[in-house]
Amino acid sequence: MAVETRPSICRFCHANCGILVDVEHGRAVRVAGDPDNPAYTGFTCAKGRQLGESHVHPDRLLHSQKRGADGRFEPIGVERAMDEIARRIGEIVREHGPRSIALYPGTYSGPHPASIPAGVGFMLALGSKMVFTSAAIDQPGKHVANAIHGRWLGGSHVFDESDVWLLVGNNPLISMSGGIPPSNPSRRLREAKARGLTLIVIDPRKTEVARFADQLLQPRAGEDPSILAAMLHVVIRDGLHDADFAARHVAGFEALALAVSEFTPEYAAARAGLEASEIERAARTFARARRGCAVAGTGPNMAPHGNLTEYLLLCLNTLCGRWRREGEAVPNPGALLPRARPKAQALRPRAGWGRGEGLRSRDLPNSAAGLPTGALADEILWQGEGRIRALICLGSNPVAAWPDQLKTIRAMEALDLLVCLDPKLGATAKKAHYVIAPKMALEVPGLSVSSEGIEQTYVAHGYPEPYAQYSPAILEPPPGSEVIEEWEFFYGLCRRMDLALTAYPIRAETGVLRESREAFAFDMTRKPTTDEVYEGLMNGSRVPLAEVKRHPHGHVFDDETILVGPTDPDCEDRLDVGNADMLAELEAIRAEAWDGVRAREASEGRRFQLISRRLPNVYNSTGRDLPKLQKGRGHNPAYLHPDDLEALGLVRGDVVEIRSNHASILGVAEPAPELRPGTVSMAHCFGDAPEHDRDFRELGSNTGRLVDNERDFDPHTGIPRMSAIPVAIGRVEGREPSGSR
Ligand SMILES: Nc1nc2c(c(=O)[nH]1)N[C@H]1C(S)=C(S)[C@@H](COP(=O)(O)OP(=O)(O)OC[C@H]3O[C@@H](n4cnc5c(=O)[nH]c(N)nc54)[C@H](O)[C@@H]3O)O[C@H]1N2
Ligand SMILES: Nc1nc2c(c(=O)[nH]1)N[C@H]1C(S)=C(S)[C@@H](COP(=O)(O)OP(=O)(O)OC[C@H]3O[C@@H](n4cnc5c(=O)[nH]c(N)nc54)[C@H](O)[C@@H]3O)O[C@H]1N2
Ligand code: SF4
Ligand SMILES: [Mo]
Questions:
Q1: Using one digit for the tens of pLDDT, what is the confidence trace for 378-416?
Q2: CA–CA distances in Å: residue 492 to residues 488, 497, 498, 529, 692
Q3: How far, in Å, CA of 627 to CA of 619, rounded?
Q4: What is the number of other CB atoms lying within 10 angstroms of the CB of residue 11?
Q5: Each residue of 162-199: pLDDT tens digit?
Q6: Which residue's CA lies nearest to atom 39 of ligand 1?
Q7: E strands along 548-611, which residues?
Q8: Using DSSP, how many helices (H) and how many strands (E) does the chain show?
Q9: How remote is the C-alpha of 718 from its chain's centroid?
């Protein structure tokens, strides 16, 4: 049979790269970048090139599974699985109320546009608000900060037009996140540098993106609030802020100025292990540029005070006026997003937390980042009325990803019903009562809408042009398999439970003001096709889906220029840079006896900081089992500075014990001269349950196990300290390590 080459969208990660797939005998035998794609221009990464392999992986589930009383899995027809699951959910709801059912959409709910809308629609139809997302253990500070700072309805400056960019703890060349557009970030960065862009990076590790930095600050982890407060101190002290903008659109300036007045560059530098001149220079460079944004990533959001870090970054952007003004064109008038209706005005702040029903555990509130996923294990293990008894994992893997892995495992085992929609029997799915085998990316129609829509939740993210792509399904599922799409599962449950399924559009937290979309009611009498569902979900898009479909290689729909309109004459809304809670948190940081805390940590042996990172060839817990990606290395190395290795008497490949005040894991030492000494940098979502600990060389170790979710957590979002964790590092010698104790 001839090889047929078909354009499509990669969905190994969230970046939606335009690809060309060679299909032969119904298999994707080769995946390459699509040079005819106008936004991605031929880019792919190693993971994307293995997308085809992932579909035919020997461990892929071709049938849904049910775990029997003996703990073994047997295949089950998916219709029967849905019958049984719907019945069980019905029983639990009748006995304990809808609140006892929770949904956790994770990483692989993103690539399929109908997945989350249907999952959340099912929960709403059921009457349960217990939807927990990975956003609350990712960058929850972004959501909280956006809410309490307020939204600028004209949108922000974007990367492609900027002359300065500040990255705080993110690595867009690997993660495809951080405001450098996900469409070929390395090309965009090279072009921007050639144009004269100044890149400033604040990261304890000289990352892939930091190699391009004009200024790299390599601080101690966890000191971002002090560093950013000191940058604001410099900006205000030297009068580098946009005073006209502040006078017209900003509230709280005096309070912020007072709060940062004690954060001198000298003070912050002492805390962060930097030179004061580095902070001075970064602040001046950032403020003196004309256009650009400051953006943080997962590192500082997982370190303590993530909300404050994100808030101070918004304050910096706002004081420097990095928002689009009247008469400027918006970069993306809308493709699959609705048409932009931008205005040069603020939309006043909203509550950052305390919104609606919270948790029993520790009285944690609901926040702008949603319910506190970092505490969901506690809510499942809760003794008493209102406990969560059933959990649906939608493309997610709690045992790999949640803080405090051992508690997470206890929680999964305590559930009356655990259902995973997952193509693998991974660390969590192994604990499930039912695993629903899903279709995979190339078997499902694709849309580039998640990369476009991210501007509505993360400042300065998304596409810098009205780009969109649609791909039909280009593969049939493997012969003999019975796999379904995630939305079909929720639709199937609704049909069985006599519920009407409606998908609601997400509410924009930031980004350009746009026309609205309508809720989409699924036809419950005749099952729609996926294309019909997409059509319904994309209602109100500026470019009709039918038009997007006419461009199989993707297209930039730059037929319309939309300018930011004037401020409404009666607009009194302001962006708030003086939020009292945030400034009180900052004051508390200033009052900390930080050197005493460090001396105590050191006296107890915890002289290192464990920091988070991402590896190029895995996507959270996915990709570890693809031989061409791992090339024989299945573990997540414990990266340490060579000086630290020497001081510890270690060489590459030695086994170390990494101990927090909560637990310990084993790691394989690897030298990394790009690290700030005193840090250990290790990727998450590796390892498995304790019975596999001895296989740490093949499976890696789970850094989440070191996290205590109850001792050191954010009171508003519940995210525990997942980076900048004080740890002891010790050499393991004289015995064959047996794993974590
Ligand atoms: N210590 C520590 N913990 C962390 C982090 C950290 O940096 N450090 N990072 C956090 C972050 S940012 C996130 S987002 C979370 C991630 O948290 P999760 O989303 O819970 O974890 P993943 O490992 O991404 O889970 C994805 C699951 O989807 C399955 N899957 C793969 N392909 C498909 C598919 O096509 N369809 C379906 N339905 N499923 C599929 C995979 O097998 C896997 O089980 O982890 C968080 N946890
Ligand atoms: N290849 C690949 N791509 C991915 C993923 C993956 O697993 N693999 N995961 C995806 C997911 S779920 C997400 S959320 C995004 C995340 O995207 P990013 O936020 O860009 O994630 P990282 O690449 O881990 O970058 C975090 C950086 O923070 C630094 N850091 C750690 N602690 C601190 C601190 O306290 N302060 C400062 N200033 N820096 C600190 C680390 O050294 C690291 O370089 O990536 C996505 N893309
Ligand atoms: S960056 Fe993400 S979307 Fe692009 S090729 Fe790699 S895995 Fe696929
Ligand atoms: Mo994430």
A1: 999 999 888 999 999 999 999 999 999 999 999 999 999
A2: 6, 9, 10, 13, 36
A3: 14
A4: 24
A5: 999 999 999 999 999 999 999 999 999 999 999 999 99
A6: 395
A7: 555-556, 575-576, 608-611
A8: 26, 29
A9: 16
DSSP at 88: H
CA of 105, nearest ligand number: 1
Q: If pLDDT is split at 50, 70 and 90, which confidence band does 233 have?
A: very high
CA of 306 to the centre of ligand 2 (A): 14
| Residue 203 CB–ligand 2 contact under 6 Å | yes
Residue 80: is it exposed, middle or buried by C-beta count within 10 angstroms (0-12/13-18/19+)? exposed
Please give the structure tokens belonging to residue 84.
Answer: 């049984």
Residue closest to 461 by CA, chosen among 297, 587, 648, 636: 297
pTM recorded for the entire structure: 0.98
Q: Which mutation among 8, 9, 13 tests ligand 3's pocket best, with the greatest number of atoms within 8 A of CB?
A: 13
| Residues in a beta bridge with 254 | none
Helix (H) / strand (E) containing 32 = strand 27-33
Give 645 Cα–ligand 1 centroid separation in angstroms.
31
Handedness of CA 310, 311, 312, 316 (dihedral sign): positive
- Contact by Cβ (8 Å): 381, 414: yes
Q: Rounded distance, CA 5 to CA 89, Å? A: 44
Residue 639 tokens read as 């990266």
> What is the arrangement of strands in the sheet containing 101-105, beginning at the earlier edge strand?
73-76, 64-67, 434-436, 417-421, 390-394, 101-105
Please tell me the least confidently modeled range out of 3-7, 498-502, 628-632.
Answer: 628-632
Q: Starting from the edge strand earliest in sequence, which strands make up the sheet with 215-217, in order?
A: 215-217, 198-202, 164-168, 292-296
Domains defined for the chain, CATH in brackets: 593-731 (2.40.40.20)
Q: Which ligand has the nearest atom to the CA of 228? A: 2
DSSP E strand stretches across 402-530? 417-421, 434-436, 446-447, 467-468, 470-471, 502-503, 520-521
Give the C-alpha separation, 95 to 85, whole Å: 15
378 token code pair: 């506690």
Does residue 399 contact residue 112 with C-beta atoms inside 8 Å? no
In tens, the pLDDT along 490-540 reads 999 999 999 999 999 989 999 999 999 999 999 999 999 999 999 999 999
Residue 422 has pLDDT above 60, yes or no: yes
